[in-house]
Amino acid sequence: MNLRGTIPSQLGKLSFLLSLDLSSNNFYGHLPTELGQLHRLRIIQLSYNGLNGEIPTWLGNLHRVQRLEMKNNNFTGTIHQTLVNMSNLEILNLEFNQLSVQAPSSIVNISSLKAIDPIK
């Protein structure tokens, strides 16, 4: 789609949203905290952008998410323990970012998790 700019915070008002796919665009900046209000989300795909900052802790509050793919961005810092709260998570892909440590060891306690590619 070749969209550019920051991800609009107004997306957080789309409470009915089940899937958010903004992959392969030119988004940059931090993820807006308003996205943490999308409690019905099952799929988050934000790969191949220029997003940066830390992986937000509020992602752990999105308990229905089954797929979280944010590879090939510029995220930094660590993978927070709060991701363990994503009890329906099946696929986690955070590879090819600037993350400094491996995923928390407790992430393997997510019984639904089928595939993980956290860091390269």
Automatic annotation (TrEMBL):
Regarding the membrane, this protein is recorded as:
Single-pass type I membrane protein
Superkingdom field: Eukaryota
**Does Nucleotidyltransferase appear among the keywords?**
no
Which Gene3D superfamilies does the protein's record reference? Answer: Ribonuclease Inhibitor
List, for all copies, the residue spans of the domain called Disease resistance R13L4/SHOC-2-like LRR.
Answer: 6-106
Subcellular locations according to the entry: Membrane
The record's SUPFAM superfamilies line, in alphabetical order, gives:
L domain-like
Q: Name one GO cellular component term.
A: membrane
Keywords (alphabetical) are: Glycoprotein, Leucine-rich repeat, Membrane, Receptor, Repeat, Signal, Transmembrane, Transmembrane helix
The regions listed as transmembrane in this protein's record are none
User: Does the entry feature the keyword Membrane, yes or no?
Assistant: yes
What's the family?
Belongs to the RLP family.
Mind telling me what this protein is named?
Answer: Disease resistance R13L4/SHOC-2-like LRR domain-containing protein
Q: Source species, please?
A: Gossypium gossypioides (Mexican cotton)
Task: State the taxonomy lineage.
Answer: Eukaryota, Viridiplantae, Streptophyta, Embryophyta, Tracheophyta
